[in-house]
Specification:
heterotrimer; A alpha+beta (275); B alpha/beta (695); C alpha+beta (162); B: alpha/beta; seven-stranded mixed β-sheet; 30% helix; C: 162 residues; Ubiquitin-like (UB roll); DNA polymerase, domain 1; 5 strands
C-alpha cells in the first residue's frame, strides 16, 4: 500500500506554503470524488496530501447586495441550508440532484469545481451565472471567471500550486432558466452531463443569453451567444429551428456525448425560450 | 454497545473473525483464453504468500470440482478474470494490492466470443424434442412468421458480496459461506482437498437475496478458501469487494431464441419451431437445468399441435453465465409472449384475443402429455387484471395517440400490456436427492419452539410468516420461535434449494410438524420433536429429457402482470409507471408477507429491463461504478391482488412469478408505446432514440 | 500517523495508514459491528456514521479525516428512545429490513427525523434511497417513517398516552 504524507494545515497561509514546497500536493476537501472513484479496499492518494476541509477561512459565507461569496470548503448540504432565497434558484436545484444527502454532507463546492477528470454539476450553472473564483498561490491572489477552469480544448484545467479559496456568485437574476442534469447515480459516469441555458427575456428581446453543456468536456459557443442577444423572443418555425440546428451542428464535432441527446436538450431549451 | 440481532440470526460472512485469520485475494487472468499459465507475483512482504496451482498440487489438492468446474485455472484459462491463484496474508487491503500487481505469462489463444453461430466444440449441452408433424404444418400454411428474440446479460445485486471462510475446528475444516446448495459446498471442498466429506462441515451464513445466483459458485470460492487454509494451516477468508462481485461472479445468461410459427387466419397456433441458444459463458454446471426449463417455458401456456424445440447451451470465453432468477424461463417466456404480440398486431387483433384463442384448455394436452385436469385461470386473472389496471381504456388511448402522431416526441409516449404466466412447482434438477426439503421442529419445556430446516432462509418476511404459522397452531408467542439451519454434518446431502419452491414446501412441513406436536402435546411430556421431509416433484423424465406440457401445471402458481410504462421524450429512457399483479397461488398464509415478497421480486425484475446490458469485456471498476439501478423514488406503483384457486391446493411458490411475467409485460408495453418491435431486452434510452428516429 | 477522535463518547488514539478507509478502521480495529464495508462508493449506506453531527458514508472517508472529530455509530444510539420508536414503527408498518441493511435504514431515519420532524413521502423516499437494498417495500418504509415521526412528536410534546 502506498503510504502518503498527510498534512493538516490550519490556515490558508500554511496551505500555500505547503503548495509552494510541493507543487504536486493533493488538496483534499471532502474527498468524495477522489475516494468515491476507487472501488478498491485501500485508497490510493498522491505522495503528499493536505486535508483542508477544517480551515475556517475556507468555510465562510458572506452575502452582500450584489454577491454571494462562499468558502470553497463549504459542503453542498451547507450551501442548501443557507437561508431561503440566499442561493440562486438554479444552483439550489442542481445541488439537490447531486448524488445523495450523505455524499452532499461531505462534498464541497470547491471539490465539485476542481475535478480534474470532468466537469461536475455545478460548473456550467456557475459559468452561466458568471461566477468568479479566488485563486491563491505564493505569487499572490487573483480572481478569475469560473469559465477559466475550462481549457481551449474543452477539458478541465486548474493552475498548479494554487488553492481555490472563494467562489463569488453575482446575485443577478435571469427570468429564463433551463437546467437539466442527465444521467443519474451517486457518482458521475459517461452519460452524466449538465445542460444549462439562461437568458433574460426583455419586453420583446432576448438578452444575456448563455448556453453551456458539460460532462467529461465542456461545450459553449460564447461568440454565438452574443448574436442571439437582441433577437426577438417568440420566434417560431424556421427561425427557431435554425437556432437549434446551429447548435446541434456545432456539437456534431464533439465526441464525448450522445449527439441525439444533446439535440433533444437544445430543442427543448430553445422551444421554451421562444414560447 | 453491541447491535441486537434476533436469536436465530445467521452470522454475516463479513462480520466473522477467527483468531489468526488470514485474508486471501484472487489473482486473475487478464486474457480470455490461454494455455500454460505462469504466475509472476511482485516481491511479497513478510507474512504474505502466493498460492499458485503448483503449490496446491504439491499438497495433493484437486483443482477441479467433481462436475468439472475449475477451482483455479490450472494450465488453461477459459475467461478473462478467471482465478489463477491467491495472495494470502494478514491484511486484506494489502492482499488486494498484491493480487492486482501480480502478472501472469500465458500462451494466448484466440478466444471464442461468438455464440449465436457456434462450433460443435462449444456445445455444453443440447436437447431437442418434437411432437406432431411440424414440417407438414409449415408446408401447408400461408401464415408463417419467424423472429429472433434476444436477452442481454443481467446482473443481480446480492445482499452481500461473494465470499467464504475456511476455519480449522480441531479435526474438521468448517466452511462458512452463504450458499443455496450446502451439500454441493461440502462435496466440492472435500474433492478439492482430496478429503472425505466427513472431514468438512458447512456452517451457513446469512444468504439475503440470493435470487438463485448462489447455487454453485459459492462452492468454487469455498474450495479456494479451503485449499488456502490447508496450505497455510490457518483460517482463511476470501471476501470479494462489491466491484469484484459485480465483475467476477456469474450473471444471468444471454440468449437468442428463434421462434417460427404457423397460424391460421384466426391466429390459432398450428406449429411452433423454436431454436433456443443460451450463452453460458466459460462454463455452468446447471446448463442442463437451464435448457430444460427454457424448453418447458417456450410454449408458455399455449396449445400447439405440432412443436419442435432445439436447445443449446453454448460455451464462450466470457464470465460464467446461467441459471438464476427463474432459471431460463424468463428468456423463453419473454420470447413467446413477444411473438404472440407480433402475431396479434399482424392480424389486427388485440394480443389478449390471440392469446385467449390459444390457451391450453382443460382436457387438452401438449406434447402428448396427460391432459390438463383443470382450467388454467387465464380468463379469471385477465378479467381482474384488466379491471384493476384500467387496461382497456389505457390501451385504446395509447393506440390512438400513437396513430395520430407516430413517434411523437412532444406528447406522452406510453404503453400498457398484460401477460399471464406460471411458475411450476416441479424441479428441473436431477441432482442428488434432488430438491428435498426437511424440517425438524422441537417444542422445549419452556415453550420455546426451535425449527430446523436446511432451506435457504432469505427473507425476514418469510421467517415472520413461518413464526405466525407455528404460533397459530401451537398457541405460543411468536417471540418464542427461533430458526436453526442445521450444519451440513447433521443433515443429509440434498439438491440445490431454489428459494421460491423451498419456501412453499417448507411452509407445508412446518405446518405438518407443528400439528404433529400439537396432537401429542398434552399426552406426552416436553420436549417434543417432529420431523417431516418432502421432495419437489420432478419435471424431468427418467431418460433425462424434460417433461413438458400440461403436467408442469399441476402444481403451478399463476400470475397475471400488467405493466404500464412511459418513455422519456428527452432521453428515451423507458420508465415503469405502474405494475399490477393478480396471483393465484393456492392458500396464502400471510398476504402482507406474500405481497412484500412479490413486490421486491418485481422491482428486481424491472431492473432487468431498465438497466444496461452487462458488458463482459467492460473496464475494471468503471462499469461497476456507473451501473444504474431503479431508485426508490423511481419505483412504480405496484398493486398486488390474490384470487382463490378453483381447486383445493396447498400453498405454492410464487417468488419466480415476477421474473417470468414482468419482463414480458414490460417489453410488450414498450412495443406498444414505441410502435416498433425491437425484439430485445434490455433497451436503453439512446437505443430507443435511435429506433424512434429510424422510424 | 496517529489520529485522535471520539467514537460513541470514548476517545481513541489510533495509528492509521493514509490509504485506510474510516469504515475499515472502525469495524476492524474498534469492532464496530454495525458497519459493513460494501459498495465503497457512497451508494449503499451500510457504512453510515454521524461525523460531527452529519450523516456521512464512512467508506468515502480516509481514516485520517476522523482526526479531531466526534463520531457516533449505530452502537452509540442503539438504546435511545429515537431508535426504539423507529424499530417499533418498522414493526408496526410491516417493514422488516434484512440484517444487512437494518442499521443503515435506522440511521437514515434517525437523520431524516432530526432534520425533518414531519417529512413528506418524497423527502422520506429520497433519504431512504441512500440505503440500497430491495428487501423492504418502499410503501411500508414510508409508513414506518410516518409512525416514527408521530411517536417522536408525541414524546417531545409529552403526548405519550394519546
Amino acid at each position: 500500500m502506498r503510504i502518503s504524507e498527510v498534512y493538516f494545515p490550519e490556515t490558508i497561509a500554511e496551505t500555500l506554503e505547503l503548495l509552494h514546497a510541493n507543487p504536486e500536493l493533493q488538496l483534499m476537501a471532502g474527498g468524495t470524488e477522489i475516494v468515491g472513484t476507487q472501488p478498491t479496499r485501500s485508497i490510493a492518494l498522491e505522495r503528499q496530501v493536505a486535508s483542508i476541509v477544517k480551515i475556517k477561512e475556507l468555510r465562510k459565507t458572506v452575502r452582500t447586495e450584489q454577491f454571494l461569496e462562499l468558502g470553497s470548503c463549504t459542503t453542498l448540504t451547507g450551501l442548501r441550508s443557507l437561508a431561503s432565497g440566499t442561493l440562486p434558484e438554479p444552483l439550489y436545484e442542481v445541488i439537490g440532484g447531486i448524488a445523495n444527502h450523505g455524499i452532499r454532507n461531505t462534498a464541497t463546492i470547491g471539490g465539485n469545481l476542481c475535478c480534474k477528470t470532468r466537469f461536475m454539476d455545478l460548473w456550467p450553472v456557475l459559468a452561466c451565472l458568471d461566477a468568479q473564483i479566488e485563486l491563491r498561490s505564493m505569487a499572490g491572489t487573483r480572481w478569475a471567471g469560473v469559465s477559466h477552469l475550462c481549457g481551449d480544448d474543452g477539458t478541465p484545467r486548474f493552475p498548479p500550486a494554487t488553492l481555490m479559496s472563494r467562489i463569488r456568485i453575482p446575485l443577478f437574476t435571469y427570468n429564463f432558466i433551463f437546467v437539466r442534469s442527465m444521467g443519474g447515480n451517486a457518482l458521475p459516469g459517461p452519460d452524466t452531463a449538465t445542460f444549462a441555458c439562461m437568458a433574460n427575456l426583455g419586453r420583446d428581446k432576448i438578452e444575456d443569453f448563455r448556453l453551456i453543456f458539460s460532462g467529461t468536456k465542456a461545450f459553449r459557443l460564447k461568440e454565438h451567444e452574443m448574436s442571439i442577444d437582441g433577437k426577438r423572443h417568440g420566434l417560431k418555425g424556421r427561425e427557431l429551428q435554425s437556432m437549434v440546428d446551429f447548435y446541434t451542428e456545432a456539437f456534431a464535432s464533439q465526441d464525448w456525448y450522445d449527439q441525439r441527446l444533446f439535440a433533444s436538450l437544445a430543442q427543448e431549451a430553445f422551444e421554451r425560450l421562444c414560447s | 454497545m453491541k447491535r441486537e440481532r434476533s436469536a436465530d440470526a445467521l452470522p454475516l460472512l463479513g462480520a466473522l473473525r477467527f483468531p489468526g485469520m488470514l485474508y486471501a485475494s484472487t489473482i486473475r487472468s487478464t486474457v480470455p483464453r490461454a494455455q500454460h499459465v505462469e504466475i509472476r507475483h511482485p516481491e511479497l512482504p513478510p507474512g504474505y504468500r502466493c498460492i499458485a496451482p503448483a503449490d496446491m498440487l504439491a499438497e495433493n489438492a484437486c483443482l477441479a470440482l467433481p462436475d468439472g468446474i475449475p477451482v483455479f485455472a490450472c494450465g488453461a484459462v477459459a475467461y478473462a478474470g478467471e482465478a489463477l491463484g491467491l495472495i494470502v496474508g494478514p491484511d486484506a487491503a494489502i492482499c488486494d494490492e498484491l493480487a492486482r500487481g501480480t502478472e501472469a505469462a500465458y500462451e494466448e489463444e484466440d478466444p471464442e466470443f461468438e455464440w449465436e453461430s457456434f462450433s460443435s466444440s462449444q456445445i455444453a449441452f443440447r436437447c431437442s424434442t418434437e411432437f406432431g408433424d411440424v414440417d407438414q404444418a409449415f408446408d401447408t400454411c400461408q401464415n408463417i412468421d419467424r423472429a429472433v428474440y434476444r436477452n442481454g446479460i443481467f446482473d443481480h445485486h446480492y445482499s452481500e458480496p461473494m465470499g467464504a471462510i475456511a476455519n480449522w475446528e480441531y479435526d474438521k475444516l468448517a466452511i462458512y459461506c452463504a450458499s443455496q446448495w450446502p451439500s454441493h459446498v461440502r462435496r466440492s471442498v472435500a474433492a478439492a482437498l482430496n478429503a472425505s466429506e466427513e472431514d468438512i462441515v458447512v456452517r451457513p451464513t446469512e444468504l439475503g437475496r440470493a435470487l438463485d445466483g448462489r447455487l454453485w459458485f459459492p462452492s468454487v470460492v469455498a474450495a479456494q478458501a479451503g485449499i488456502a487454509a490447508k496450505l497455510c494451516r490457518k483460517p482463511v477468508r476470501i471476501l470479494y469487494t462489491r466491484e469484484e462481485d459485480y465483475l467476477r461472479t456469474p450473471k444471468q445468461a444471454r440468449s437468442a431464441i428463434t421462434v417460427k410459427t404457423a397460424i391460421d387466419d384466426q391466429g390459432r397456433l398450428l406449429a411452433l419451431d423454436a431454436r433456443i441458444i443460451i450463452n453460458i459463458g466459460a462454463y455452468n454446471p446447471m446448463a442442463e437445468e437451464l435448457i430444460h426449463q427454457a424448453m418447458a417455458a417456450i410454449t408458455g401456456i399455449y396449445r400447439c399441435p405440432a412443436v419442435r424445440i432445439e436447445a443449446y447451451a453454448i460455451r464462450s470465453n466470457i464470465i460464467p453465465l446461467g441459471a438464476m432468477g427463474s432459471i431460463g424461463s424468463t428468456h423463453a417466456f419473454f420470447s413467446i409472449e413477444a411473438h404472440l404480440n407480433h402475431l396479434a398486431k399482424k392480424l389486427g387483433k388485440a394480443p389478449a384475443e390471440v392469446k385467449a384463442l390459444n390457451i391450453l384448455a382443460k382436457g387438452s394436452s401438449n406434447f402428448g402429455s396427460k391432459p390438463l385436469d383443470y382450467e388454467i385461470p387465464f380468463a379469471k386473472i385477465h378479467r381482474k387484471l384488466e379491471k384493476i389496471s384500467d387496461y382497456r381504456r389505457k390501451y385504446a388511448s395509447y393506440e390512438l395517440v400513437k396513430k395520430r402522431d407516430p413517434g411523437s416526441r412532444e406528447g406522452v409516449i406510453r404503453g400498457i400490456a398484460l401477460t399471464v404466466g406460471y411458475q411450476t412447482g416441479r424441479s428441473f434438477s436431477q441432482r442428488g436427492p434432488s430438491s428435498s426439503y426437511s424440517v425438524e421442529t422441537t417444542l422445549e419445556r419452556d415453550l420455546r419452539l426451535i425449527i430446523k430446516t436446511q432451506a435457504a432462509i432469505g427473507s425476514e418476511s418469510l421467517k415472520a410468516m413461518w413464526r405466525n404459522t407455528a404460533a397459530g397452531i401451537l398457541s405460543i408467542p411468536e417471540q418464542n420461535i427461533s430458526f436453526e439451519r442445521p450444519d451440513s454434518d447433521a443433515v443429509a446431502g440434498g439438491g440445490p434449494l431454489t428459494l421460491s419452491r423451498g419456501s412453499s414446501l417448507v411452509t407445508k412441513l412446518i405446518d405438518r410438524t407443528c400439528r404433529s406436536i400439537q396432537k401429542r402435546r398434552f399426552r406426552e411430556s416436553l420436549p417434543l420433536s417432529a420431523k417431516a421431509q418432502t421432495k419437489a416433484l420432478k419435471a424431468v423424465e427418467a431418460s433425462g429429457a424434460p417433461a413438458l406440457g400440461a403436467q408442469l401445471f399441476d402444481s403451478a402458481s399463476w400470475c397475471g402482470t400488467a405493466v404500464e410504462i412511459e418513455v422519456d421524450a428527452l432521453s428515451g429512457d423507458p420508465k415503469p409507471i405502474a405494475v399490477w399483479m393478480v396471483v393465484e397461488a393456492g392458500k396464502i398464509v400471510d398476504e402482507n408477507m406474500a405481497r412484500a415478497s412479490l413486490r421486491a421480486s418485481a422491482i428486481s425484475a424491472l431492473s432487468l429491463c431498465t438497466r444496461g446490458d452487462f458488458d463482459p469485456h467492460g473496464g475494471e471498476g468503471e462499469q461497476y461504478l456507473y451501473e444504474r439501478r431503479l431508485g426508490l423514488a423511481e419505483l412504480p406503483f405496484i398493486g398486488i391482488e390474490f384470487i382463490d384457486a378453483d381447486r383445493s391446493v396447498v400453498p405454492r411458490g410464487l417468488g419466480e412469478l415476477p421474473f417470468i411475467t414482468v419482463p414480458a409485460a414490460f417489453y410488450s408495453a414498450l412495443t406498444q408505446a414505441l410502435g416498433i418491435d425491437p425484439r430485445q431486452l434490455p433497451l436503453g434510452g439512446s437505443e430507443i432514440l435511435k429506433l424512434l428516429e429510424a422510424q | 500517523m496517529i489520529i485522535d477522535f471520539n467514537v460513541n463518547g470514548e476517545m481513541k488514539h489510533l495509528q492509521v495508514r493514509s490509504g485506510d478507509r474510516l469504515v475499515d478502521v472502525l469495524r476492524d480495529r474498534l469492532s464496530i459491528e454495525s458497519l459493513l464495508p460494501d459498495c465503497l462508493s457512497g451508494r449503499c449506506g451500510r457504512c453510515f456514521i454521524f461525523l460531527d453531527g452529519r450523516l456521512v458514508h464512512s467508506c468515502l472517508l480516509p481514516a485520517f479525516k476522523a482526526k479531531g472529530t466526534r463520531i457516533v455509530t449505530f452502537e452509540g444510539i442503539a438504546g435511545s428512545p429515537e431508535v426504539a420508536e423507529i424499530e417499533e414503527a418498522l414493526r408496526q408498518a410491516g417493514a422488516l429490513p434484512c440484517p444487512f441493511c437494518r442499521t443503515a435504514k435506522i440511521m437514515a431515519i434517525v437523520d431524516l427525523l432530526d432534520r425533518h420532524p414531519l417529512p413528506d413521502e418524497a423527502v422520506a423516499l429520497e433519504q431512504l434511497d441512500m440505503v440500497s437494498c430491495a428487501c423492504t417495500d418502499p410503501a411500508s418504509l414510508v409508513k414506518a417513517v410516518g409512525l416514527a415521526a408521530d411517536a417522536r412528536s408525541r414524546r417531545k410534546f409529552n403526548r405519550a398516552n394519546q
